[in-house]
Amino acid sequence: MTRAKGFPENGELVVCTVTSVKNFGAFVTLDEYDGKEGFVHVRDVATGWVKYIRDFIREGQKIVCKVLGVDSSKGHIDLSLKSVNDHQKREKIQQWKNENKAEKLVEIIAERISISVDEAYEMFAKDLLDVYETLYGAFESAVAYPDDFTEEFSGDWIETFMEVAKENVMPPFVEIDSILEMTSSAPNGIELIKKALAAGLKAAEGENAVISSIGSPRYRVVVTASEYKDAEDIMKKVTAKVMSEFTAAGGTVALKRESK
Question: If you average pLDDT over residues 124-148, what whole number do you get?
């Protein structure tokens, strides 16, 4: 990403540094595209009327913008700041930081095996980008699935790559949660709840699932996994088992999802 060449695509989110702010808009450089210049018109700085543009954007600020249009023949890149929400900004900035870190790791690998950074890209980094789209994604995959990674890739660089990955990158994971609202009029209602929750955890089959009380009658189910789909599958197994066990015992249960 940080070594990207050429121009971004319409709709792409890009990390920018503000270089100049005028009443009519702001000029920025695109950090991931060799410092190419882009422009954010005042109408695209914020929703509503912008009286003082510097209330929203200032020189030296790091911002995330959406690409509205690109004229590569003239070198013009039109951008929007207001089209990027806080979640997208945080996600993009983290992605950009991760990719910067990954490039530093490639430099470390190159130094350890006594080749130049450009040679490292020719030897393995370009191939990894073709497969994973980001270098950081390649490092994450190497840590999370080392056997699969070393089966797919080989060469004089692989041993050092794996060492550097393990030293510097944590395995990726996603976390999702749900709320179960459980009530029972039975004299042993609490025991029925505990039994149903235990059955749900057993249905996770050893995967990372945790259930905790957040104040009767509400219980939070938290599942972590390396992939979102895997986490969803585990969550469905756990909550379905809890609900079937508890309703069979005469209880009432409602499931509510929470977003992360």
Answer: 92
